[in-house]
């Protein structure tokens, strides 16, 4: 989890530093024409620039998310959950750094976004990490894999076996009893 958190955070901060130092705000650089370009903007809101007047709310939300994930570290015994939560945490911390340290003020800083796809939002590496982590969380949840690495069917079977009277597992024998 720590490795994924650090990778997402460091790559996010390095790419933002690169954009700020090499591009002017509003500048567009085609990377793969008609498919991908770098477009430097400063986003005061959330995805799709929603809530631009409530920047401080997003700062609080990111702090709460980061603390909630950090509190779960001891419960995680699954590689999948480690990667997923590491990506979400790294992305949240990347954008939180912008909110805390970038203009216009502490806690209300604008996030540097630069990855532009046609007819879509402009985003950054932190956003990509958060979305990738959330997608992985959804997949793990749909597959019934808990943070402890067990499938929910394994956990339910163990609970049934523990609750069954001695010598019986709650399963029917060949006669249907």
Description:
- This protein is an alpha+beta fold and 177 residues long.
- The chain has one domain.
- Helix content is 52%, strand content 12%.
- The protein has five helices and four strands.
- A four-stranded antiparallel sheet has the order 1-2-3-4.
- α2 packs antiparallel against α3 (79-101).
- It is elongated and about 75 Å long.
- The termini are far apart.
- It holds the Pfam family Peptidase_A8.
- This protein specifically catalyzes the removal of signal peptides from prolipoproteins.
- Residues 156-177 are annotated as: Disordered.
- It is an enzyme of class 3 (hydrolase).
- It catalyses: Release of signal peptides from bacterial membrane prolipoproteins. Hydrolyzes -Xaa-Yaa-Zaa-|-(S,diacylglyceryl)Cys-, in which Xaa is hydrophobic (preferably Leu), and Yaa (Ala or Ser) and Zaa (Gly or Ala) have small, neutral side chains.
């Amino acid at each position: 989890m720590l490795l994924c958190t650090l990778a997402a955070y460091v790559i996010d901060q390095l790419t933002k530093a690169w954009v700020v130092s090499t591009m002017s705000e509003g500048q567009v650089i085609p990377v793969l024409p008609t498919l991908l370009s770098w477009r430097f903007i400063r986003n005061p809101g959330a995805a799709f620039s929603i809530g631009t007047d409530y920047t401080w709310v997003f700062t609080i939300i990111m702090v709460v998310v980061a603390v909630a994930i950090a509190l779960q570290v001891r419960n995680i015994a699954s590689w999948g959950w480690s990667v997923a939560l590491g990506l979400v945490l790294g992305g949240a911390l990347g954008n939180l750094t912008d909110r805390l340290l970038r203009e216009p003020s502490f806690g209300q800083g604008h996030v540097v976004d630069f990855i532009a796809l046609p007819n879509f939002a402009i985003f950054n590496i932190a956003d990509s990490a958060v979305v990738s982590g959330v997608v992985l969380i959804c997949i793990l949840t749909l597959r019934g894999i808990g943070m402890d690495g067990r499938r929910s069917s394994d956990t339910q079977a163990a609970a049934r076996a523990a609750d069954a009277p001695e010598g019986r597992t709650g399963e029917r024998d060949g006669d249907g009893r």
